[in-house]
C-alpha cells in the first residue's frame, strides 16, 4: 500500500503523525500541492475531490479523507489506541475530534487560505473578509479549549488521541494563518508545549 501525501499541509500531517504514533511505516508519494499536482489527471482519477492525503491499498482500493485513513489503520493496528477502545471512549474522542476539526482547524485553515499570499493559488477567489472573520472564531475556540484543559492533560481525556493530533496540527498553522495565541491561555500553551515535544510531531 502507499499514501499520496502533501508534505506539511495540515491534513497529510494528521495522517503522518497518526502513523508515527502507531509505529507504522508505509511508502509515501509526496505531491507538490503548490504546483497543484493534486489536480492532475492521473491523481484525479484516484480522488476526484482533488485533495490529499489518499491511501491506495494493494488491491487498488482508494481511501481518501484524513480521519477515514486513520480509522483504517486503527482497525488493522489497534495498538496503541488513538481512537478509543470502549464504546464510551470512542464516542468521546470522536466528539472532541469533530469539535476541534470544525471549530478550530477549519477556521485556521480558512484564515490561512484566504489571507496568506502563498495560498492564493489554492482558492478560486481569495476572500480576505472571510479569512479575517475566521481569525476570531479560532481565537474563541482556543479560549474554550483552554478552559477544558484546566481539568485534564489531553484534548479528549486521560490519553493522547486523534483529537490531540488534529488540534496540534491546527495550532502549528496559527502563525501562517496570522492568529496569535493569547498569553493568558496557560493550559492550552502547556498542552501545546507537551505535544510539540512528541517525536511524531517534529517537523
- What structural category do the secondary elements indicate? alpha+beta
Number of DSSP strands? 4
Biggest sheet: strands, sense, closure? 4 strands, mixed
Total DSSP helices: 7
Instruction: List the secondary-structure elements in sequence, H or E.
Output: EHEHEEHHHHH
What is the helix content?
Answer: 40-55%
**Morphology:** globular
Beta-strand fraction estimate: 5-15%
CATH architecture of the largest domain: Up-down Bundle
Total number of distinct structural domains: 2
Strand order of the largest sheet: 2-1-3-4
CATH class of the largest domain: Mainly Alpha
Alpha carbon gyration radius: 17 Å
Uncertain runs are none
**How many angstroms separate the termini?**
24 Å
CATH topology-level name of the largest domain: Glutathione S-transferase Yfyf (Class Pi), Chain A, domain 2
Q: Overall pLDDT, averaged? A: 96
Give an overview of the whole structure:
This protein is an alpha+beta fold and 203 residues long. It has 2 domains: 75 residues, Glutaredoxin (3-Layer(aba) Sandwich); 110 residues, Up-down Bundle (Glutathione S-transferase Yfyf (Class Pi), Chain A, domain 2). It is 51% helix and 7% strand. It has a 4-stranded mixed sheet, covered by helices on one side. The longest helix is centred in the middle third of the chain and has 29 residues. The two termini are 24 Å apart. The mean pLDDT is 96.
Amino acid at each position: 500500500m502507499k499514501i499520496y501525501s502533501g508534505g506539511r499541509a495540515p491534513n497529510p500531517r494528521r495522517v503522518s503523525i497518526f502513523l508515527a504514533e502507531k509505529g507504522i511505516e508505509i511508502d509515501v508519494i509526496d505531491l507538490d500541492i503548490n504546483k497543484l499536482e493534486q489536480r492532475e489527471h492521473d491523481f484525479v482519477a484516484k480522488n476526484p475531490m482533488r485533495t490529499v492525503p489518499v491511501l491506495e491499498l494493494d488491491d487498488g482500493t482508494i481511501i481518501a479523507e484524513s480521519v477515514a485513513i486513520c480509522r483504517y489503520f486503527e482497525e488493522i493496528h489497534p495498538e496503541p489506541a488513538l481512537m478509543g477502545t470502549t464504546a464510551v471512549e470512542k464516542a468521546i474522542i470522536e466528539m472532541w475530534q469533530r469539535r476541534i476539526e470544525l471549530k478550530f482547524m477549519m477556521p485556521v485553515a480558512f484564515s490561512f487560505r484566504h489571507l496568506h499570499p502563498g495560498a492564493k493559488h489554492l482558492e478560486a477567489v481569495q476572500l480576505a473578509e472571510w479569512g479575517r472573520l475566521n481569525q476570531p472564531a479560532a481565537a474563541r475556540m482556543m479560549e474554550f479549549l483552554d478552559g477544558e484543559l484546566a481539568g485534564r492533560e489531553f484534548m479528549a481525556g486521560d490519553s493522547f488521541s486523534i483529537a490531540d493530533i488534529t488540534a496540534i496540527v491546527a495550532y502549528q498553522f496559527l502563525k501562517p494563518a496570522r492568529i496569535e495565541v493569547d498569553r493568558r491561555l496557560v493550559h492550552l500553551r502547556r498542552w501545546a508545549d507537551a505535544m510539540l515535544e512528541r517525536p511524531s510531531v517534529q517537523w
